[in-house]
Protein: Response regulator transcription factor
Organism: Mesobacillus maritimus
Amino acid sequence: MVEQIRILVVEDDNDINQLLCNIIRKSGYSPQLAFSGTEAMLYLEKKDWDMVLLDLMLPGMSGDVILTKIAEHSNIPVIIISAKLDQQTKISMLRTGADDYITKPFDNEEVSARIESHLRRYQRINKLPNTKKLIHKDIEVDSEARTVCVQRQELNFTAREYEILVLLMSSPKKVFTKKNLFESVWKEAFYRDDNTINVHISNIRNKLAAINPDEQYIETIWGMGYRLKT
């Protein structure tokens, strides 16, 4: 089915790395092992990948540095798989560009399901039809190139940030609840995980403000959700 789909697994523990690769193979995908941050960067520079599974505590180069580099140049899904349990680390990684965060020890079936979910979403974004450009104020989204520009400067958005912004710009007068946004973008049931949406909205606002700090693009409708600010 998906022999062409390649997933880079960056994990210095051999047993865990092999386990993740087995999960990937069982789903029909093609894994590539990397045991250090330096090795991972070599693979990232030489080939294109459909997904990266990334540990944080790595020899050579830490996972958070690798994540930053990926987010600067690509919108491929990155799932953090780490023993770090603190909430601040999770929030920081999501803000940096991670699409998901799974803590160790993990359930094999859950990892498999999350991989498949993110791949479906990534493939759907890549197959967006060339309809028309979405424009709001000085934001311009090109659905064919999957780019976001503010004042003609291109921004680096993660796959989910891109989907959220496209959803808001597709219906500029609509107020989207957190449930609307989560279920439309994540394609999963919403269980009051307010923080996930908050983090992604914050990321989008910060990236837009980095180009035009004097403009407000997304407004919070208290008790309801978010919409584009006219």
